[in-house]
Amino acid sequence: MTVRCPYPLSRPAGEPHATTDVAIVASSPLIRGGLIHMFEHAEHLRVAYQAPVITALPRESASAVIVVDLYGTAVDGTEYWSLAPQGAPIVALCPPENPPDLQSAIRGGMRALISREHEAAELLAAVELARHGALYVAPELLATVVAGPAPRPEAHRHDLTRREIEALRYLAEGFTHGQISRRMGLTETTVSSYVKRIRHKLDAGNKAELTRRAIELGLVERRQ
User: Fold this and answer.
1) Cβ within 8 Å of residue 173, ≥6 positions away
2) Tens of pLDDT, residues 114-140
3) Which terminus of the chain has fewer Cβ atoms in its 10 Å neighbourhood, N or C?
């Protein structure tokens, strides 16, 4: 089976259509497998990378179009988008009732936003548009994204730094402060300071709450 893009972009006559690399991010193995199967049967597209969380993508995936399923992921401000390989165009799939903040997403590299309930043809069209640098938001999501996200508690308004994100990911994966310090090249005192600031920013009182927030932010995969 070959899936054709229903909205092909024009290009000079005789110019070949280059193959586009795609990186797929979805926490659900079932959804990830379905997306991989769909893209493997699409013309001029190749699945070059796939991962359960966006932080697991290698840097070289910045040359691909990243297709990310946001279901079950808390996308607060710029925190999530800063984790993607820099420079990669992103196509986001979201629950229709819970789209991300549009301005933060666009600043983070998102170029297309569609509902998870769309047909495969529209996703393929979104990838094609993102590859060419266009910006696309599915019409049925416009009213919600223009209205903006619901207000968050004040403690959640502060974005984490990259080093704090790195420390949080290690902490959520079960590493001790000593192990984290060796991996990050820091003293245990510095790591403890990071964890204290992270708890304050995320309003988390203990390690279990920090782990839950790390899963919500898409930093680590939810354990089955």
Assistant:
1) 220
2) 998 888 899 999 999 999 989 999 888
3) C
